[in-house]
Structure formats: structure tokens, C-alpha cells
Amino acid sequence: MSKLLKGVEAASAAPDHTPAIALAHLGKTYPGGVRALDDVSLTVERGTFLAVMGPSGSGKSTLMHCAAGLDAPTVGSVRIDGYEIAGLNETRRTELRRERIGFVFQSYNLVPSLSVADNITLPLRLAGRAPDQEWLRTLIERVDLADRLTHRPAELSGGQQQRAAIVRALAARPAVVFADEPTGALDLRSAHEVLNLLRDLVDELRQTVVMVTHDPAAAAQAHQALVMADGRVVDTLHTPTAADLAARLVALGEG
Amino acid sequence: MLYLAVRMARRRVAALVAVACAVLGGAVLVTGTGVLAESGLRSQLPAGRLGGVDVVVSADQTFRPGGDLPIALPERGAVPAQLADRLGELPGVTGVVGDVSFPAALVDADGRVVPGEDPSTAGHGWSSTGLLQDAPVDGRKPGDSREVAVDRDMAAAAGVQAGDRVEVVAAGRDAAEYRVSGVVDAPGAGVFFADPTAEQLAGRDSGPRAGTVDLIGLRTETGATDSVAAAVRDQLRGTDMVVATGEDRGDLAAPDAVASRSLLILLAGSLSGIVVLITGFVMAGALGVSIAGQRRELALMRAVGATPKQIRRLATAQAMVIAAVALVPGAALGYLLAGQFRQQLVERGVLPETLPLTFSPLPALATALLLALAVQVSARGAAWRTSRMPATEAVAESRTEPRNPSRIRTRAGLLLILAATTLSVVPLLARTVLGAAATSMAGVIGAIGLAMAGPALARHAGETLARRLRPGVSAPTWLAVSNVRGYALRIAGVVSTLAMAVVFVLTYTFAQTTVMTATSDDVRTGTLAQERLSAPALGGLPEGTLDAVRETSGVRAAAPVGSTTVVWPYKLLGEDEVESSSAMILTPDAWSVLDLDVRFGSLAGLSGDTIAVSSDVARSRGAGLGERIGLILGEGTRVNAEVVAVYDRGLGFGPVALSRDLATGHTTTGLDESILVRTDGTATAQRELAALAESRPGLTVEPTDTGTGGSLTEAPPEVWVNLATIVVLLGYLLLSIANKLVATTAQRRGEIATLRLNGTTPRQIRTMMRREAAMIGAAALTTGLVLAAIPLTLLGIGFLDRPWPAGPVWLLPATALTIISLAFVTIEVPTRRALRTAPAEALAGRE
Question: Which Pfam families does the UniProt entry name for this protein (chain A) (predicted)?
């Protein structure tokens, strides 16, 4: 499977018009009957910075987990870079995830016992791929972590940990980077740095980024913002402002 | 994978030490058992007094049942004497010796007996010196029937030299005076008679063994050993005689030593079951704790793209690295342990000193394979759940405990407990040592079942406790109870290991002591005779002894009792089985000194080709009264004997008794081993017997009831072996429990820190942990006692007709004390250490 993917990847490296993500009629029902996603369809073009917003329990995290192959949807189709992942088993989904998707979590999820350098190359190591040293060096310099590589995550500040996590997400040159509340645990300045970094990645490298957040200021950095409620997409805003988004969310809260 | 595994390993010292200790101890035990087993199969006895000849021919001293391990026959078989002449004519043969052995001992000037190395085979003909490797003689060979040559050690012990006169007791004849013609300078060579005298004493001039010798030794030209051996094999084709050269000669030198070699196999066989069970249990437990401590990291790996298989491989790789490191010293220690064990067995007379152990790399390799397999299975099992979950769920769950104990696991555990209970019924059906072994097995299997069903039970118990809790209860107690409920998996792991220790100690020790008590009860009530007369230094009782005893005043009855080995082939559930067991040799008047509780028939019928059997054997092997049974006697002769009596006291007196007529001519010495004497009970009778023993050299008299039947210090060797096993395994178990508890508690740093951040004082945390320790200790004791109670009750009913076992009462409080203090100490120490770190720091170091 992974060999096949590698071959296909080389072919698909040429610019084409396959969307980075295509979701069709996605639904997820948890045991006990909680319906977290209800018939969501969505297309994300390459080089887009998309923010997904919504109140707690609106289904935004579930949407991301399903779109990213971290969790299996109950019904519907998920295509990443043109490849269907909804029907795959845990192992194949993981393999595809490793090849095409990068992750940034709210809680960084760096493995505490490994050094920063080891954490950054972990997904590549797991995939059995040799890291592209030059690309890594560029990334590490870009996020200013060159002198922190031998440290353990616990010895870094929150912002530094999150930047390390971003490098990890990008190390394999994924088709999409998903970020789940990437600034949720950071102070204002660090949060600002991280958001700028994500926006720059999109603008400079044509990287596709999908970010889940409930912070209107964070979402305002994105090209596009979806607003979710009760498992559905209720609104789509282009080049949103923080004020628009805040108003929209407050309205939802009252509704 | 290895790189990651090692990186991740560095920060989990406590848990990894536990794994290393488990593997180390397991390697020691498994290797040790392996060395015993291999020695039982392959160890080489020294050629001893056959060192001077190159090729040895003797009767085949092994019985080879189809598809089963060969059984060594301890009594000496015979080969035709004229074969020696024929083999002597083969090309390349330079000398031939037909050797006979018979009981012989010197009596010194003070009337004390000077035994040879083995009194029952110390006597030989002069020609047997031809077997010795290098034996200069000071003097000359015995010239006539009144002369003997003796080995240097015996001569020195008796204070005689060439030309002196000395009394000799040989082959059951009364002591007679001989002239010492020479002293042979070879250790343990024995007493040499003129060849015709030796033939006569050994009973080879007439009777059942006329015209035979024990073995034939051939000296060959240099380099011709192999060709001669091949020629001899050609000559012997179709007979049941065997040929040995080189190191194999030792096997033919002493059949009884070879027989005790197979004891090593039996021993290793009986140890292997419990050793593997305990080792597996301990290693699985240690790995479970270690991997549970890494659940979060493994889940994070899942989140960044590790496949389920990679997670399992990672967990396994780490465990294998630790195991490999611990295996090397473990295996080395195992060899040492086996050596120590052999030394103990030699000191207790279970093994002959001449029997060495075989030290080859095989047991270590087998151990490595076995442990690697166990580690793989345990590690994969422990990482299974985390590896299979969707990544997000795994990360979420890793922050707490798995939500629900797996239902399959719980059911399998309950089934095991049920199976154990069923197994513990066995002592009711079979009142034998084997039947009692089911008790200990039932206990241990029950404890493994508990380990599996434990989480569900612990949660249940915790919930019940929480419901019963009074509202005003103190905060630490409330926290402790909540922890039992919320961390059911963790608590159950700890409780079940402690319970395993309780069950193991109680069932194993009490099974041993109960069988021992029941056996000595059997022997005591079954022995009517008050005195036992024997002559160990002479190799057997002289022939006139029985008449002399019967004529002693105050003696009501006297009968000789001997023992030998028989091999009994039978069918069990359609399968061919073979069992070798010791057998009494009895005469028809044995009933007057022994009460075997005969149910059918009578011991008075024990003449001719007849046997008596215990009712257990009669039932299980279809050997009822009047049946004819095919047996193989101790030197390999097949006989067909009729069952004339079925007795109940098989535990004390063994499964089968042969009539003396049947055994005559089929034992090495041909002499009675001892005489049981029933007197009128007066002191006079006792004095008269003592006087009789005094008047004849080598005779000893002792009371049959030594009054120490049930005490552990007087335990017979097999009980001692089992008790030693219990002590060693218990040490291993306790060490691993301590490690496991320390590791488990050390992993709770984050939890403790969170509690402190929420305003719990260190004092309250210590109290909470102590309450938990108390609950854990109490739960372990209760479940352990319950699991042990059922098999032990059934054992008591089966063996002692009362619903409790026999044994030291102090074992109960001692076990309780050990378990409770172990729980307290191993929880208290890591808790104190965790409290020394500031809570915020402890939490920061975790993510």
C-alpha cells in the first residue's frame, strides 16, 4: 500500500486540480446515539487556509478527526488528495495519514521521552522514510528552533513546543495540515506567532491548512471560515474578520 | 523501532527494573530446571572401576517403552558367563574379564563393620581387578577360598595389611575369618576373593543365576576399541545386551546410579509446570505495568502516524531489549542454581555423589526461546488495546484508565477459576501424591483466573464499597475508595499478584504437609511391628538373621521386607502408559507385622508369582483381585503375576508389593533388606533384640515409630525438594510483586500532583495511599484465602477425612503479615518520594 502511494505521489506532484480535501455526505454517530456530524459535504482547494469554527459540541473536532483519518466516519466519503480513506481499516488509514496529512494539536502531543529532533522525525521514522535534511533545516530555521533540537519537550516553552509540532507536521510535505486549536494553550504573543507561521506556510509554500478553533481572532487569519452547529455547516465566510465571526458565534449561542 | 524503544525506555526505570527482575528470575529458574532435565537425559557417570577396560558388555539396564522416555532399571541383570570366552577370541582383544559383584564388608578387630564404597556390591572375584585402570597390588592375589585382597581404603579403615587376618561378611554368610593376601591400590575397589569363591558367594554356581556374570570387560589393542566394539555388537545382535565404550562405560558400572539419573528428569518434569506458570504470570504482570505506564506515549505515537502493528512492535522491541539484557546473567545464575540444587540432593542422599550435571548451552538456549516467546506474547497482549484504538480515542483514554474491563477477559478468568475448582476435586478421587499435586495446581490456576477476572471484580467491589460509604467519611478514605473504583485495572493487577502469593504458599505447603501427614499416618497405623532390624553396612541381612530373631524371647512375629523397582505398563483411556514405581517385597507372613488394610484377598497368598496392589491402582489400571498383571522387574525380566490382595494403605506403602518368591533372583544383592519384628511390647523383648543385634556385626535395630512423622525437619527428600522449590519461587514472586507495586505507585506521580494542586495535603495523600494499601492487602488476603480454601478443604477430606489440611498453623499469620507489610512498604516509599517533588514540577515533567 505505502509503496503504491509513494509512486502515485510522485505522479501527483505535478500541479493538478484535484482538491486537497473532498468530503461528501459525511456522518458520524457515536455509540449511544449522539450524532456529531450530520451530512457534511465540503471541498478544500490546494493552498487554502480554512478555519472551522463553532461552539463546543458543534462537531468541529469530529469533522477534523474524520477528515484527517484519525477517526472513521459512520457514513460518507472522505477524499484526501483524491484518495478515498473512509472505508480503510485502522492500519491503512494510519499509513495514508502518515503520507499525506500533518497534525498540530492543542496539547502539542510531543512524546515526552524523545528529544525535539526525534519528535520532528518521528512520523518519517514510523513510515520508514529518510527525512529530507535540507527541507527540515529550512523548516527548523524558519521556526527558530535550531538551538533547541537536543532538548526534551518539557524543557521548551509552550510556543516553542507548538512550533516543533508544526515542523513535525510539515516534515513529510503533507497534502494537508490539520491544526486542532493550535493556539488554545498559548499566551497571546505565542499564539500570534503560531498563527502568522501557519498563514505564511499557506502563502509562501501553497500548503493547505485546516484549523479548528473557537477563537474568532485566530480564525480571522484564515482565507475562509466555516461555522458549524449541531453537526452541520451553517455558514461559510470568505476573508472573515474577527468581528464578523464573533457576531456570528454570539448569534448562534443565542439561537 | 529499536531506536525509539530504547529512547522511550530511558525514562521508565522503575517499571523496567521490574521487567528485568521478572525476566532475570525467570531465566534463573527455567535454566536451572533445564539443566536438571538435560542432566537427567545425558549426564555421564564416571567409568569408575571399569576404567581399565575398553569395551563393556552388560544386560540392557533400560526399559524402552514405545514413544516414552526410557526407564532405567536399578537392579543388576546378568549375562551368560561363556559369552566371555567367545568374545575373548575376537581379533584385537587382549584381555577379557567376567565380573560379578556381591555384598561384602570387613569387620575390624573391635567387631565394627568397615563397609566398602557401596556395601551391596563391594565383593568381587580376583579377576575383576582386570577392570581397574591402574591398580598396583601390595602382596599377591588370593590363593584359596580362605584368602581375600582388599582395597587400600578399606584395609586402612580396618587396620590390616597383607598377611593379617580379618573377618569378612560376604553375600549374607555369617562373618568368617580370611587371610589378607594383598592390598589393591585403587579407591573403592572393594574386596576380592579367589574366583571360584566369588562365583559361589555370588550364587553363580547354582540356582537361578547359575553360569552368569554381571558384566564382561574387554581390553583391546591400542586403537582397536571401535572395531572390537563393532564386532561385539555383531555377536550380540538379537540379544538384549548392550555394548559401551569410552564415556558410556559409566552407564554400565552402576545401574542404581543410572536409575537415580532418571529421577532428575522426573524432578525437572514436576518443577517445569509450576516454574513456567509462575514465570509467565510474573513477566506478564511486570510488562503489563510497564506498558500501561507508556500508554500515553504509545497513544501519541498513534496520533502522529504509527500503525497498530508498529505500536505493538515498539512495545515488544522494548521488552525484548530488557529481556535480552536480563537473560544473560539469569541463565548464568541458573547453572549455578542447578549445581547448588544437585549438591543439596546429594547431601540428602537422593542422588549418588558420582552423578555429575551436564552443562551445555542447550538449557540457556531453550530458556532464551521460551522467555522470548513469553515476552512477545505478554508485550503484545499488554499493548493490544492501546494499539487497536482509533488514534484520538487512544490519546483521550491514555489520560485515565481504559473505560471498561474487557468482557472476554473477565469471562475467561471466571472460567479458569471454575476449572480450578473442578480440578481440586481430584484428591477425593485419587489418594496419591499425584492427586495431591492437583490441589496446588488448582490454587495457582485459580489465581491466574483471578488476575484475568480481577478488574471487573475490583470495580464491582469498589462500587459496592462506595455505595456503603457513610456520607461523613474522611476525605482520604473517600479518595481511596474512588481510586479502587476508578482504577480497577491497576488495583486488580496488584491484588491478584499478592493473592497469587497467598494461594501459592498455602496450597503448595499444605498439600505437601497434608500428604506427608497422611503418609506417615498410613505407615504408623499400618505397621504392627515395633522394631526394625537391618544391616545397611553389610548390603543386606545375613541369611540366618530371621531364624535368630524368631527364636528371641518376646518376639511374636517377624517377617522380612525388602524393596525394589517394578515397571508397570497399562492402558489409560486407550493410551499405553508405563509407570516405574518402588515396590515392597513381602513374604506370606507379612500380615503378622503389617496391616495394609487389605480389602480383598489376603497377604497370606503372597507366594509364587503373585503381587498385592493398592486399591487406587487396582481401580485405575484394572488390576482387581485374581487378575494377571504383566510387569517388568527391576533388572528387566518380564513376569506375569496374579493379584492376590488389594489394600487401602497405598499412600504409605506404595502402589504394589511383590511376593518374595517372585523377586528372588531379580535383585542385585539377593538379600533381605530389613526384618520387621512384632514383640510382646515389653522392655525385655526390646533388650533381647538389642542384644541379638549387638552380637552380630553390622546389625542395627530401631523402633518403627520414630515419633517425628509430621515435622518438616524430618521431611523425606521429595517433600524437601518441593519445599525448597516453594521457597525459591516465593522469593521470586515476592520480589516481583514488590517491583510491580513500586512501579505502579511511581506511575501515579501525575495523579498525586493533581490531587495536591487541588488542595490535598501531603498528609492526606499519605493517608489515602495507606487506606488503599490496607484495602489492597485485605482484598488480596481474602481472595487468596478463598481461592486456597476450596482445594485445601477437598484435600483434607480426601487424605485425612476432615475438612482441613495438616501443616504448620503459623503459616497463616506469617503469610498475612508478609502480604500486608509488603503492600504498605512498597506503596509508602514511592509515595513519599513522589511527595518530595513540587506538584507543578511533577505535572510539567509529564507532558
Answer: ABC_tran (PF00005)
Query: How would DSSP label each residue in B712-726?
Result: GGG--HHHHHHHHHH
Q: Which of B234, B259, B284 is the last residue of a domain?
A: B259
Domain assignment of residue B69, given as a range: 48-259
**Chain A residues whose beta carbon lies within 8 Å of the beta carbon of residue B301:** 111, 122, 126
Q: Is the same domain home to B76 and B28?
A: no
What is the average per-residue pLDDT within B257-270? 81
Determine the Cα angle at B549 with ends B545 and B551, to 5°: 120
Selecting from B300, B305, B390 the residue whose C-beta is nearest the C-beta of A90 gives B390
Q: Name, in order, each residue with C-beta under 8 angstroms of B232's C-beta and a sequence gap of 6 or more.
A: B55, B57, B87, B90, B218, B243
Whether complex ipTM tops 0.90: no
A114/B8 CB distance under 8 A: yes
pTM > 0.80: no
| Kind of pairing between the strands at B656-659 and B241-245 | unpaired
Residues of chain A contacting B300 with CB distance shorter than 8 Å: 109-111
SS (H, E, C) B399-449: CCCCCCCCHHHHHHHHHHHHHHHHHCCHHHHCCCHHHHHHHHHHHHHHHHH
- CB contacts of A72 in chain B (<8 Å) are 390
Q: So what's the pLDDT on residue A13? A: 41
Largest CA distance in chain A: 52
| Residues forming a β-bridge with A86 | none
Say yes or no for a CB contact (<8 Å) between B305 and A108.
no
Q: Is residue B269 part of a domain?
A: no
**B352 plus B451 within the same structural domain:** no
CB contact under 8 A, B305 and A127: yes
CA B386 to chain CA centroid, nearest Å? 42
Pair B799, B731 in one domain: yes
Domain harbouring A163, CATH code: 3.40.50.300
pLDDT for B469 beyond 90:
no
Using pLDDT thresholds of 50, 70 and 90, give the confidence band for residue B844. Answer: low
Residue A186, CA distances (Å) to A57, A163, A195 in order: 22, 11, 11
